[in-house]
Amino acid sequence: MNWGPIDRYAKSLIKEAGHHIRHSFFTGIEVSAKSSENDLVTNIDKEIEQFFIRRIRQNFPDHRVMGEEGFGDTVETLEGVVWFLDPIDGTMNFIHQKRNFAISLGIYLDGVGVLGYVYDVMAGDLYSAEKGEGAYLNDIRLLPLKETAVEESVIGVNASWVAPNRYAEHEPMIELVNRCRGTRSYGSAALELTHVAAGRIDAYLSMRLSPWDVAGGMVIANEVGAVATTMDGSALSLLGQETFVVANPGLHRQLLGEFIRLKK
Description:
Helix content: 25-40%
Low-confidence stretches: none
Number of strands: 14
Distance between the termini: 42 Å
Shape: globular
């Protein structure tokens, strides 16, 4: 398959969608809750997803789309070409901060990530990658990751995981926080993945992420040598919510071996 035209088309959709999102700040944003009061969605999330799906179906009718807001296809297998779309990753940041959110898009063939994009809308930064061709920030190639141990690493982790929770033992996470050089939390999995790929943080971990959160960023991170798995070291299925950890290979092994203890 010739991916060049699809790559150019995807980038044009992303830039057009970003323009619409920025313009929305001058119109009206309607906020509602989904599963809880902290699980927010806006009319802009829905409009952007519908925009992508309408255009993808028009130009690639044999491709399927898995989108966060439910306007896409029901994807139960990864056969063929699947677009994984989060129209606004970091909706709470979008609502409260008007920054630190992204459009995340991954295009997969038979379960293998071929094209990946994360667009930091307000910064105007487009991270992109094609499998085997390297990863780029605004067309400038990102360098391969350097190996780091925990003691010299900045870790992307949400503060809630060092408190008692139902997913992982929190005492090893406290030790991780105490031993690493520092921690960060940006509120957008897609952006955290780009920070790993660009070397700004050395690892990112989360207890529950959906395929559209990570599909685009994983292609980018893989192209600079990062390893991305579930927290038990398995490959992601990309068919439901899963635990997630991404880091340079040595740090990835250290995190799984010493600090991550999932509850049964």
